Amino acid sequence: MKVHFKTGRLAVSGLTIFCALAFATSASAANPNVKMTIEGDQLVITSKKDDNGCSVWNTREREPGCIKVKKNEKATIDFLLTGDTKCSLENGTHWELNAVYLGGYDFDSKPAEFGFTSTPDADFNKVNADFNVTDRASGQVTTTHKSETKITIKDENQSAYTVWYKVEALCKRTDGKPPHTRVTDPRVGNGGTG
User: What is the spatial distance between Cα 170 and Cα 167, in angstroms, rounded to a whole number?
Assistant: First the structure.
């Protein structure tokens, strides 16, 4: 996993959670959750690579944060920030979850950029129908629940494909400057309905 440090505007570069949403036909977690913690002011996934239905992933690489949704199942996916959320970066207060982004439709490796600007409309429409993407350029997904330590998204799982996700955490600052940003990026795999 690559880790970048970014201050300033809400630029979505940094530590990304690599987990592909590749929904296949073997067992999956009905309501998967990805647990994360702050370690050294970095967002780190603590879920194991075999969690959330990923113990069997055919030939695809598995990493912590991987999610696999079984064919003909829908999923509610929770991203959970656990442990101490103190932020020791310049003028920082605490870390909180901010957003989930998708990208890399059926990519075997993490995309250089998230979002679906260069993805064909037919493929983007599948992802949008499953995850309700609020911004095609960034890949940001609609949340059904959002708090400082938990973000929930829905996956309708109508089509079979893999997509990468990243979770963004922000460290608010006491000096009024833009927050520090960290992200992490694994994949989700959908089994679809066909």
Answer: 10
User: Has this prediction a pTM greater than 0.85?
Assistant: no
Q: How many domains does the chain have?
A: 1
CA 8 to chain centre: 22
For residue 185, list its beta bridge partners: 17
Q: Is residue 28 part of a domain?
A: yes
Three-state SS sequence of 65-80: CCEEECCCCCEEEEEE
Residue 134 lies in a domain: yes
User: Which mean pLDDT values do the consecutive 10-residue runs of the chain (194 residues) have?
Assistant: 35 36 42 92 86 65 80 93 95 95 91 94 98 97 97 96 93 92 74 69
Helix (H) or strand (E) holding 123: helix 121-131
Expressed in percent and rounded to 5, the helix, strand and coil fractions of the chain are: 5, 40, 55
Q: DSSP secondary-structure letter at 179?
A: P
